[in-house]
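Figure 2 data, in text form.
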Amino acid sequence: MKRLLLISLIFSFPSFLCAKHCKILVPDTLIKQRIDYVDILSCCEGDGCNLVDIPRSDSISLIFYDYYDTTLYYGKEYDTYYYYERRGDTIIRNGYQNNFLKLHCPIIQIVLNKNLDDTLRWKYVGEGEYVHNVAKSIKGEVKMTQRGVKKLLLPDHTYENAFLVHSIVQHTENGVMSVIHNYRFYVPLFPYPLFESEQCYQKGELAYQVSYYSPITEEMMAKYLVMDEEEQSDEYQDEDKETLEQKIVQYGPNPVRERLNIKYQLNDCEDVIFKLFDSSSNLLFTQSFKKQEAGEYNIQLDMSSLSNGIYILYVSVGKKLETHLILK
């Protein structure tokens, strides 16, 4: 059976590859949380992988994906732009640039109509420059395999058919070689990794290790994973009963003009934390409640003085956390 093989070193593929289920050329916004390193394989047992209790972090960034046309698009994280190109069934990352570095290096990101059980290998070379015209050259080889389909338990949701992709990258930059092990979890229809862990070794010693958690917002859920149209009330998002049971909060209106109404219910005595970040990951608001008793609560967040844009609502209740995209 032919299926879709995701091949990604940095990011993944854009919305036009899911044209059957979503609009073409609609920009995407992905929330990315950097957390302490998690050994994914140690969390996997049998056909499941439990990441419910992953360490939480306030280190949040937004990644914006937008398009030049149906073949060229880019992803922006902070001040770095990553450039992509579609060539038939193949997606290529052509390079990236920021204020300090410009690099051209075509690397395959995704190949369509390949069996997920296949192991793929490819080589890449690239060149660029640092500030003050200092030359930079890179080359490498990638081996990618799928490590099986598993039930993935995350703080915000449980996914029955997540698949784990393992990349081994032998990367040489200006003569210095690194070996990178990257593990990523994907779910069908959703084009970006939900969770990833990466370790980098140089000269046999650990250079760095990091993990990223990217919860799916309601907007992205509706775009990629929800096939049926959902009705929305003026004040609160009206989700089906199963989804509501899995969400910590209900909120609205979204987009918001002045005040965001937040409603949540506690079944037990819990610590509750609310934080609001802007699109540059600056903390704008924080409110915490220690040992809040079980019951239903309503709070209002005054956003009248904030400029129009994208904001992140961070919610933590006990060991559970959610992040929501708020538009103004």
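Caption note: Residues 3-218 form one domain.
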